[in-house]
Structures are given as C-alpha cells and as structure tokens.
Amino acid sequence: MAAKSDNPGNQSVDAQEQMVAGSAWMTAGSIFSRILGAVYIIPWSIWFGTFFLQGNALYGKGYNIYSFFLIAAIAGVPSAIAKQVAHYNALNEYGISVRLYQRGLVIAIGTGVAIAALMFFGASLFTGGDQNLVPVLHSLAWAILIIPTMSLTRGYFQGFQQMAPSAISQFVEQLARVIYMLVTAFLIMRVLKGNWVTAVSQSTLAAAVGALCGLLILGVYYWRRRGHFRSLVQHSNNQLVVPANQLYREIVTQAVPFIVLGAGITIFQLIDQYTFAPIMHAAGHYTDAYLNDLFALFGVNANKIIMITISLSSALAITVVPLLSEAYTRGNKREISSQLTNAFLMFEFVMIPSALGMSAVALPLNIVFYGHAQEALGASILAFSSYLSIILGLYTVVSALMQGISQNKRAVKYFLVGTVVKFVVQWPLVYFLGTFGPLVATGIGFLVTCYLIIHSLNYQFGINYATIAKRTNGILLSSIITFGLARAVVWAGTWLLGDNRIMSFVVVALAALVGGYFYVYTMLHSRLADDIMGPRVAGLRRRLHIR
C-alpha cells in the first residue's frame, strides 16, 4: 500500500477518479436543481399573466441583493471548511477537522443572524427607489438564518470527498422551494386574485422553506455516518495541537477571499441592476416599466437558463478545491499540474457543447419558458448569453483552482482588476448597445480576470497546453457539428410543427436528442471521453454498442 500511495502516477489516477466521481455527484445535484429552478417559470409565468415580466424583474432584483447578502452571511466558510478539512485529513488529523466544523458552526450562525437582521431591518436602503422590493427582501431574510448552517455542513462533507449528501440535499432544497413557490403563486394569483407583489414575496419566502428541508436531509446523513467520523478521529495521528483561536483565524483567513470570488457573478449582476436604468435614461426617453421589462429579459430570464450550464462548471469547481488542497499540502507540483490540466479539459468537455447547444435552440427554448413576450429580442439575448456562459463558467473554475492552491489574495486582486474593467466599459457599452451592453461588459470583465488567473497558474505550476489544445480541437469540432445539427432540427421542426409552447418543447427535445447523441457518440468513438473522464466511460460505450 505504501508503494502505491507514493507513486505519483497512481496518485494522479486516483485523483482523476475522485474528481470524476465527485463531479458526477455534484453535477447531477446541481443540474437537477438548476433545471427545477428554471422549469418552475413555465406555470409561474402563466399564472402571473400580464404581470409576468414585472414580477420576474422584481424577483430577479430581490434575488440579486439576497445572493450578495447570502454570500456575506455564509462568508465563504463552507468552501474554506472543505479546503481546510481536506488539508487536515491529508495529514491524518481528523480530530482537527471535526473541531474546525464545530468552530465554523459558531461563525456561520453568528453571521447568519447578523446579516439577516441587516437585510430585514435595512431593506429600504437597498431598493434603489423600488419600494416593491421591501417585502421581497423581508421574506428573503428568513432564508439567511438557515442557509449558512446548511452550506457549512455541505462543505464539511465535501472535505471528506463525500459529495452525495451535498448533491441530494441540494436537490431536495430546490424541490421544496419550487413546490412552495408554485402553490402560493397559484393560490394568490388565480384563486384569490391577489396582488402580484404579494405573490412574488411568497415566491421568495420559498427559499427559507427549501433551506429548512435541505438542512434536514444533511442532518439525516450526518446521523447515519457519525460512527464513521468517530472511527476516523480515533485512528488519527493526533500529533498536531491547534488552539481554538488559530482555528477561527484559519477559517476567517480562508473564507474572506471566498466571499469576494464566490460573489463575483452576483457583483456584476448588481452593477447591471443599479446602472442599467440610469444609463438607458441618459441614452433615450424610456419608461421605468419598459426598462424593467428589458432588465427581466437579460438580467433574469436569460440568466436563469444559462445558469443551468454554468452549474456544470460550478460543480466541477467545488470538487477540485479539496483535491488541489491535498496535492498542495503534499507539495506535489507534478500532481497539481496534472489536476489543473484535467480540470480545464473536463470544463471544456461539458461546457462548450452545452453552451453551443443552448444557443442553437435559443428561440424555441425561450418560447417554452417565457412564451411569446418579447420573443425575438428574448431569443437573441438568450443565444448571446449562452456564449457568455462559457466565460462565466470558466471564471467559477479558475477562481476555485486558485483557492485550492492557497492563492486567495492573488485571485481577489485579479477579480478586482476585472471589476474595474467592467465599470470602465459599462457606460459606453450600455449607452450604444442597449440591452446587450451589460452582457458584453460582463464578458470583457471576466475574460480579463480569467486570463490573469490562467497566466499565473501556468507560470507557477505549468499547464499542459499541448494536451489541452489537441483535445480541445476534437471537442470544438464535435460541438460545432452538434450546433449545426441542432439548428437544422430547430429550423425544420419549427416549420413543420409551429411555434406554440408545446410544439417548441418538442422541437427543443428533438434537437437535444439529435445533437446530444452525436456529441456523445463522437466522444466515445474517438476515445476522447476516455482520455478526459477516465476508463469508467468504457462501460457506457459498451452499453451503447459503440466501437
């Protein structure tokens, strides 16, 4: 066993298998959660009727503010806990990992109470003049009391490479949230003929309902595995003595950068939320209601759908952090370089075809979710946002990679550079490009940040660009053909079946089936999937009878 663990090649294979297995669980949980979080919009939009775009804009504005407060409440502790738990586990000091979790709970509960109180009692300070946001922020504040503890527990499981509890609790959380949203929306808008602002407030209160259910699932998993955790502690080296103050200091030191980097996409969305209307008012004479509709199209509607694909890279990012931390603790630069290369390839493998495929079906997909409201503009924004999702997904991965190797301050510095770039180009781009301006500015800002981070990673550890380039060519070629096939199905299907909601769903399903099968077939047939995802995909190739 010692010889095996000391072999860099074996460690690299084990790490790749761990990454693939962990990514599979986190991707499944994240994907199903995102799909639920997007599909609810179909009945929700029907029940809101003419108030849909206004309601969705209010919902999106409230959630942008909530997301920022939530990240501040969580304070990056879950990811920091996962990283530090993996660090001490690699040293066979499981007792310290347990103490880290206990100290983290104190921080999470304290920050949750403080931030929830600030959001509830200071709601009027964050509305930007829209008083309809006050009851929405009040309802969202309750979720902040629960989610920090839930997220911290997920981070603890992830530090032990146990991804299933996080993935399942994430799905249950989203399921409960969506059920509550839909029931209350139907009762208020259709049965009681109530106020749409009240319906939105209840839809946002669903976040607290979902969080409570997710926390209960994690509690069940922890109770079932308590014997395993105790056994690990009993067989620890117990050679390190870490005072409580040092544990708190480690958590906070690791957590603060996670706040900034984890809130990256939300910060950019908040910049759009508070600057879009003033810039557009300067560019022309538009009503507030019309600008709210436009904000709903690019800041809420399209964003909700592309987050399904971005969640793929987010799942990968969560998996990579503890694995890289272990390699960094051992000081194995060769393993770090290998994992960086694998991480980029796995990102490309799932993100590029997903983004191009979503762009190909943008028109019918937009109709499925949002009907024919602002149909042409909404579809164009969704198609453009699909390409943008590649950059946003890359940001989530590279920022996690920097955190995994304890380059937190440097990663924050690079993000701040990208944020400055976003601010600089925001005004002229929105002024001249209108609704597309914020999206282009976001892409430029994150592209700068990603370039700086990747350049730094390559300088320190070396990234195997030759391997990445060779395999990227195959991924890109298959993805482009997949895009063409999906577009052809969309064109033919729309011409034959029409463009109502049901037929648009059929067209999207057919396009996804044809394009998806082609991509999977080419990846398995060329053995490119084996090189990236490991030997486990051979079983899938046999089941699909692909040689």
TrEMBL record:
CDD domains in alphabetical order: MATE_SpoVB_like
Transmembrane segments: 35-53, 65-83, 104-127, 133-153, 174-192, 204-223, 251-271, 305-324, 345-370, 376-402, 414-430, 436-454, 475-496, 502-520
One GO cellular component term noted in the UniProt record for this chain: plasma membrane
Short name of one Pfam family: Polysacc_synt
Keywords, alphabetical: Cell membrane, Membrane, Transmembrane, Transmembrane helix
Protein name: Membrane protein involved in the export of O-antigen, teichoic acid lipoteichoic acids
Subcellular location: Cell membrane
Species, as recorded: Levilactobacillus zymae
Membrane topology qualifier: Multi-pass membrane protein
InterPro entries to which the protein is assigned, alphabetical: PG_synth_SpoVB, Poly_Biosynth_Transport, Polysacc_synth
Predominant location category: membrane
Domain of life where this protein originates: Bacteria
